[in-house]
Amino acid sequence: MFGINFKQYRQFLTKNERNKVYLRKNTAEGRAVADNKYKSKKRMMKAGISVPKLIVRFKNREGMENFEWSSLEGNFVVKPMSGYGGEGILIIRKKIQSNPSRPSAASPLDKGDYQMMNGKVISLEEIKLHCLEILGGKYSLHGSADGVIVEERIKIHPLFLTLTKSGTPDIRVIVYNRVPVMAMLRIPTERSGGKANLQQGAYGLGIDLASGITTFGIEGKGVEIRKIYDFGKKKMIKVNGIKIPFWKEVLETAVKCQGAIPGLGFVGVDVVIDKEDGPKILEVNARSGLSIQLCNKAGLKSRIGKIDDITVRSDEHGIALAKYLFGEKFSDKVSEKEKDKTIQPLEIIKMKIPKGFKPELQKSPILKQGKHRVVEVRAKVDTGAFRSSIDRSLAEKLGLLSSEKILYFRHYKSSLGKHKNRPVIGVSFWLQGKKVVTAVNVADREKLRTKFLLGRKDLEGFLVSAKSLNPLARQATSLEEGRHKLKVNIKND
Amino acid sequence: MRKTALLFLAWLFVNVGSVNAQETMETSGRVVFKFWNGISYLISQAVSRGVPENTVALLLLLPLVATLVSVIHYVIGFSGYGIFMPTMMAVALLATGVGSGLILFAVILAITLLSNLLVKKLKLHFWPARSITLLFVSMGTFAAMVVTSYIKIVDVGKISIFPILFMILLTEEFARTQLIKSKKEAVRLTTGTLVLAVAGAMVMGVEGIEEMVLKRAEIVILVVVATNILVGRYGGIRFTEIKRFKGAIRKKEKSSVH
Predict the structure, then answer these.
(1) Cβ contacts of A132 on chain B, cutoff 8 Å
(2) How would DSSP label each residue in B193-223?
(3) How many CA atoms lie within 13 A of A284 on its CB side?
(4) Together in a domain, A183 and A300
C-alpha cells in the first residue's frame, strides 16, 4: 500500500504498541516506584545494587534552607524527584574560590560560586532558587509539588571522557521479563546541554548485546550519524566498534535492577559507569523511549516476541538469552568492506569449549583460538534449515547441555515431519575465522556423519559454493578424505 | 468487541443515507417518538421547554471533536497538548470565528512571551511570576479589544471571557514547555493544538451539523463509542512513525552473484 512495505515495519515497537505493553507488564505500584527517583533509589540500595550516593533529600523549603550547603565541595547533582526526560537537572563540577577581582553580582553575600558541567558559573543562591522551583513543581508531570534529590556525581570512565566534554554518558538497557532486549550508549552533546536524553539532542549508539560493541548511531530522535568526535584522538571516529567497559556487569546490574522493583516487566534502565566502582543505576523508566530501535537498527517488538513465553530461571539465564538470541552477526573487527566469504557444503568449524570444563574427547585435539579453547567439528551447510542444530552427544561432550545452559525448549518439525521438543542452547563457534555467537537446537544426530548442521540464520555474510574454489589454501584434508571415502563406497556398490 | 464496532460503523455508513429524516419528523420540525430515538425525542422536548438549543448541540459536538482529535493522534500521529486543549480551543475558535480567534491568540501569546522575558529578570517564584504574566495578558487583551473596537478587524461583540480563558491556558502551556523543554517543542505542540482546533472548529461549523446532532443524537453517541473502541485498541503503526522507523530497516546485503 502506498509503495510502503508494511511487513518491514512489523518488527518495531510503535508508540501505540508500547503503551499497551507498558500497561500490560507494569503495575501501578511498579510505575509509582519507577517514576519516583527517591523511592527507586531506596529499593536499589535495599537490593544491594550500586547507585550514586544520596547526599540529601528535600521534601520542603525548610529542609532546603536548613541544609549545610557549605559542606558541598562540588561533584554533586541536583534533580527533581519525579522529573522526566532529563528536565531540571543541575550537574555541579566544583566550587570556585571567591575571586576578589571579580565581584559576583548574583550573590552579594558571596557564599561561593560553583562551576557546572557545561563550564557556566552558578551561584549558591541560584542553586537554591532552582531547588525552590523544583519543590514548586516546575518539572513534575502535572505541576504538582515535588521533592529534590542531591546526589554525588559519579567519576566518569576515561573512555567516556574522550567521547564528550559536556555531561555523563550512560547506557540505556531495556529489560523485558528479566531479559535485556536492547541497549544503547547515550552521549550528551553541547546541543543537549550535557543531558543524555535523545529528545534533547544527545547521540544514541546502538550496542550489540553479546559483545558490548557499538553498532549504529543517531543524533537526537532520528538523524543517522556515522562518525563522532573523539576528544582524546582529536579526530572523528566511527560510531561502530566502540567497546563498552564492564559490559557483563552492566547487563547484570540492569537485570538485577528489574528484579528489585516488583511489578515492572518492561523497563528502561539507565546505567552509568563509574571509573572505580563500575556500573551504577542512575534511574529506571517505566515508559522507555522508542528511538533505541533506530540506533540499533532492530525492532523491539520482534525481540520481545521471541522471549515472551520463556520462563526465565535466573538473571544469568536472561543474559544468556540476550547474548545468543539478539547478538549481532559481525566478526571481531567490524569492517564493511569485507567481502562475503565463500564456504562449501561441508565445513570445519571450531567450537568454543566453556571455561573451566574438561571435555571428554577421544579423537579431536583441543586447539587454541585466541584466548579460547576450541575443538574442530565437521559441519554440513543446510540452507533449508533456519536455526543450526548440534548433536546431543556432542553437545554433552562439550559441556553445553547442562541444565543451566539450556535457553529454552521449542517444538521443531524435522524433515520427516516429526514434532520434537528440542532444547535450544547458546554456542560460540568460528566459521572461516569469523566468530558466530548464536542459539542452536539440540537434535539426535548420532547416526549421521556430521554432528553439526549450519542453518541459514548463522550463514549471514557467507556464500555457499558447491565447487571447490581454492583447494590448496583450504583445510581440505578431512574433506578430501570424506570425498574419497564416498567415491570408494560408490565403487564398491 | 472490535469486530462489532467495525461492523456497526460499516452498517451506519450504509444506512445513514437511506434513513429518511422526514419519517420521524412532523412538519413543525418536532421529533416524533419512536422506540429507537428516545434521546433525540428528549432533546426536542427539552428545547421546546427553553433549554438553549445551541448549548445542547455543542455538548453533543464536543465528544465528536474529541474523537476526531484522538483519531488523528493515534492513527496519523499528529498531536498538540493532550486531547482537551485542542477540543476546548475548537469551541473557543467557533465562538470567536477562526480568523479573529487566531489573531486574538497571537496577541495573547506575544504578550505572554514579552512579560516572561520581563518577569524572568525579577527572579520570582514560579506562581507569583505566572500571576504577573496573567496581569499583563489581561491588560493586553483589554488593550487589543479597545483597538479592535476602533479598527473593526475583529467583531468585538463575539469575544467573550471563555475563549480568552482557553487561549490564556494555551499560551501558559506554551510558556511552560518553552521554559522546561525547548522552544522548538513548544512551537510544535502549540501549532499542533491550533491546527487540530481549527479542524475541530470547521467540523462544528459545518452547516446543518447542529441540526443533525440534535435530531440524530443516537447516531452521534454510537459513532463516538464505536470509533473510540476501534482507535482505543489500535496497536499498529502511526503514519508519522513510518518515516521515523524508515532508517531503522536494515537493507539486505547486496550479494554479488558469481
Answers:
(1) 125
(2) HHHHHHHHHHHHHSTTHHHHHHHTHHHHHHH
(3) 35
(4) yes
Residue B239 corresponds to which cell in the numbers above? 503514519
CATH label of the domain that carries residue A262: 3.30.470.20
Q: Which residue of B238, B253, B256 is in closest CB contact with A16?
A: B238
A330 domain-assigned: no
Q: Using CA atoms, how far apart are residues B70 and B199, in angstroms rounded to an integer?
A: 13
A471 and A353 within one domain: yes
For residues A94 and A176, membership in a common domain is answered with no
Between chains, do B237 and A224 touch, taking CB under 8 Å as contact?
no
Question: Which among A15, A88, A137 has the least Cβ separation from residue B241?
Answer: A15
Q: Do A4 and B74 touch (CB under 8 A)?
A: no
Does A411 lie in the same domain as A304?
no
Note whether A15 contacts B245, CB cutoff 8 Å. Answer: no
CATH number at residue A350: 2.40.70.10
Dmax (CA) of chain A: 104
Question: Is A64 contained in some domain?
Answer: yes
DSSP helix/strand/coil, A79: strand
Q: Mark whether A128 and A220 lie in a shared domain.
A: no
State how far residue B243 is from chain A, nearest Cα, in angstroms.
Answer: 10
pLDDT tens, N- to C-terminus, chain B (258 residues): 777 777 777 777 666 655 544 444 544 556 677 767 778 888 888 888 888 888 888 888 999 999 999 999 999 988 888 888 999 999 999 888 888 888 888 888 888 888 888 888 888 887 888 888 889 888 888 887 788 778 766 666 667 788 888 888 888 888 888 877 778 888 989 999 999 999 999 988 888 888 888 888 888 889 999 999 999 888 888 888 888 888 888 875 444 344
Q: Which of A152, A174, A204 is the C-terminal boundary of a domain?
A: A152
User: Are A222 and A285 part of one and the same domain?
Assistant: yes
Q: Are A136 and A200 found together in one domain?
A: no
Residues of B in contact with A461 (CB under 8 A): 253
Query: Rounded to whole angstroms, how far apart are CA atoms A457 and A384?
Result: 10
Domain assignment of residue A315, yes or no? no
What's this model's pTM, rounded to 2 decimal places?
0.77
Task: Pull the grid cell for residue A467.
Answer: 565447487
Distance CA A256, CA A238 (A): 32
Residues facing A52 on adjacent strands: none
Residue A214 has pLDDT above 90, yes or no: yes
Contact B255 A139 (CB under 8 A): no
**Rounded Cα distance, A159 and A173, in Å:** 19
Residue B147 falls in which region: left (phi positive, over 0), alpha (psi -120 to 50) or beta? alpha
Is A136 found in the same domain as A175?
no
Give the structural domain span for A120. Answer: 53-152
- Cβ pair A270, A170 in contact under 8 A: yes
Q: Give A454 to chain B, closest Cα distance, Å.
A: 19
Which residues of chain A have a CB within 8 Å of the CB of B79? none
* CB proximity A20 to B under 8 Å: yes
The total of structural domains in chain A comes to: 3
Asked whether residue A492 is assigned to any structural domain, the reply reads no
Among A152, A169, A202, which residue terminates a domain? A152
